[in-house]
Every structure is written in C-alpha cells, then in structure tokens.
Amino acid sequence: MSPIPTPRLRIALLFGGRSSEHSISCATAGGVLGAIDRERYEVIPVGITRDGAFVLESDDPGRFALDAGALPTVEDNGTRVRWPDSAASRELTVVEDGAERSLGELDLVFPILHGPWGEDGTVQGMLELVGLPYVGNGVLASALGMDKHFTKTVLEAAGIPVAPWVTLTQREWDADRELWSRRIGALGYPQFVKPARAGSSVGVSRVTEEAGLDAALATAFAEDGKVLVERGIVGREVECAVLGGRDGAPARASVAGEIVVTGRDFYDFEAKYLDAPGVELVCPADLRDGELAEMQRIAVRAFEAIGGAGLARVDFFLTADGFVVNEVNTMPGFTPISMFPKCWLASGLSYPALIDELIALALQTAR
User: Fold this and answer.
1) Tens digit of pLDDT for each residue in 248-274?
2) At the fourth CATH level, which superfamily is domain 145-161+234-364?
3) Which one of 46, 93, 306, 314 is CB 3.0 to 4.6 Å from 299, fit for a cystine?
4) What is the radius of gyration, based on Cα positions, of the chain?
5) What are the residue numbers of the active site?
6) CA-closest candidate to residue 251, choices 219, 297, 284
C-alpha cells in the first residue's frame, strides 16, 4: 500500500510594501519562490503595492529578478487579498473580477518586508491581531531593530559596544542648527549620517568634514524625520547570521562574512544590490583563533537583548580594540546571494534548508 502523502503547508509569502526598499523585498521574494520546496509547501504570493494594497501576485521567481535597469515591483493588478477578520479563522480570500474566492486556510505567513510598514512591527502586529503565525521577529524586536537609535540604546544597556551617536529630528535641526552642529561635531570625522528607520543603505552618506553635513542631513531627512549621526569606526566590516533555537535551545550564530570595500566610500545600495564594483563579499571571513567565537557570542547576545525570534543579521566593525556592533537587522536581505544565506551556506545550511528551518521555527513558536 502506498504511503498517505503528507499534506502540504499553505504559506502566504508577503512582500513588496510601501518603503523605499520595495524592490529589494520583491527580489528576496523571487529568491524564496525559486528555492522553496513545493512538495512540502503550497505558496500563495501576496504582494503589497507601493500604495499599500494587498494583491495576489504571480508565482514566477523570474518576474522578481533584481535588474539595475528595471527593479522589480508589485503592480496593482486589480485583485485584493483579504485577511481573516478575526482569530476564529485562518482563511485567506481574494476579490478578483468582482467576485470573492477562497485561497484556503493558512498555516503560516512568511513576511519578507524591508523597512517601515513591514519590518518595523506593523505587519507583525496585524498578523497577531488575527491570530496568524508568521516567520521572524515579533512586534517589539521588529520595532527595536528598525529604529537604529533604540537598537543602540538597548544594546548599550546590555553592555554591547556600539559606535557613539547623536540622534536628531528635522524639527530640532531647523530650530537650532548651531547647537546640533556642535553636538555632531564632537563625534569627530568621518561620520555616517543615516535615516533612523530605513535600511539597505538608503539615504546614508559618509561625511568627512562639517561642510558636508547639511547635504547629508537633507538626504537622510528625505527618508525619515529622525536621523542618526554616528562616528565613523575604523575596522573591518564583518557580519554574523543568527537563527533562533529549537526546543528551548539558545539561538545560534553562523560563521562570519566580511565586506571588503576597495573602490567606494562605503557599502552603499548600488554595491549591495546592483553589483556595482569596488566591493567583495568574503565568506567565511578570515578571523584569528577566538575571534569568531567572540563574535558569535556577541551576535547571540544582541539578538537576545532585543527579544529576537526566528532570524537576524548582526553587523560589526572589528577594530583594534575588539568588536563594535553597527546594526541588528531583523529581516536581513535574503536573496540567494545576500550575506545572511551566504553565511549559513558556509555553515552547512543550504538556501532551501534555511527556508525550512525558518518555517519550522515559526511553527514551533507560534504566538
């Protein structure tokens, strides 16, 4: 007698969104659509347009390939995906051509969203309101990881070294530029000026003297009303991927990757995603005895400090005095060539197996 086949899990893959990282989210979704095990999972691709509409998207990985000439995007195709209206049901429906039909009961949502309105706890809160389990970090950890000021505040309180910084708003800058120029100048140069709540190096500038501050702040304020100015740290740029633990076990960290910048000011958007020259991603990174273990220890500690669940990527500078944490990314770039899956691949976990692990973690810790 043939064995009874195991029912496939029905997973809504959620991507796109209203943030400036819309296209990166689409590219990540393309990677997952192409790698996820279709014998184990039935995938429902749900795109979020730049205006915030939930639409039923194409299940075609090629449609979301990252191309510098035509970045992928979620277009409004007229469909509207409807989430359950209470925790009493997990049924997903879609309105199409004036009629509503069922997409079935969901087992899990896999939100691959970067930036505000998705990575910041907003979508996670929506899913919790209607009782849908989801991959990744919860509301608090997502909100903390999204806001660089509060990430640093929490990490510093946990005894984890971070770069000195100043946080200011557009209103504060406009009200007293002289005061804030003094505070920022006290950090020394070079500096990095960043939107407090954005990622993928969008809106980030490197400033080497006070004369460049105005333009850098204007670029960052165009992305966010709150901006972070950090002292530039001299050191190697290294990263570590983190996964939550199974069955009560502690979180675990991957081998380290390194970003080697040779022909650019820093690891900017074009270098990260559009294959611009001047940057090399090395994994595993060449670290001395004991350095990897210390980096992994700090990465897990940072993950725990923000209340992490599922996954994160912790970015460091390795200086002459040791490791300094730069950021904690609660939904890191997840295309097949991104550093997060690269680090796990070098640690023995393939891209499809990594997707399986994230799903298993989410089901085990369903909220």
Assistant:
1) 899 999 999 999 987 646 554 555 554
2) ATP-grasp fold, B domain (3.30.470.20)
3) 314
4) 21
5) 21, 200, 273, 313, 315, 327, 329, 333
6) 297
Q: What confidence category does residue 195 fall into, taking pLDDT thresholds of 50, 70 and 90?
A: very high
274 vs 8, higher pLDDT: 8
pLDDT of 293-323, one tens digit each?
Answer: 999 999 999 999 999 999 999 999 999 999 9
**Secondary structure of residue 150 in the 3-state scheme:** helix
Task: Indicate the DSSP class of residue 125.
Answer: H
CATH topology of domain 165-231: Dna Ligase; domain 1 (3.30.1490)
CA–CA distance, 83 with 71 (Å, rounded to integer) = 28
Structural domain boundaries of the chain?
Answer: 9-134, 145-161+234-364, 165-231
CA distance 131 to 150: 27
CA-to-CA dists, residue 246 to 128, 131, 217, 251, 366, angstroms: 21, 22, 43, 8, 13
Using omega within 30 degrees of 0 as the cis cutoff, is the peptide bond preceding 332 cis?
Answer: no
Tens of pLDDT, residues 218-233 = 999 998 999 999 999 9
Task: Please give the structure tokens belonging to residue 21.
Answer: 């990282």
Which residues are paired to 191 by β-bridges? 207, 231
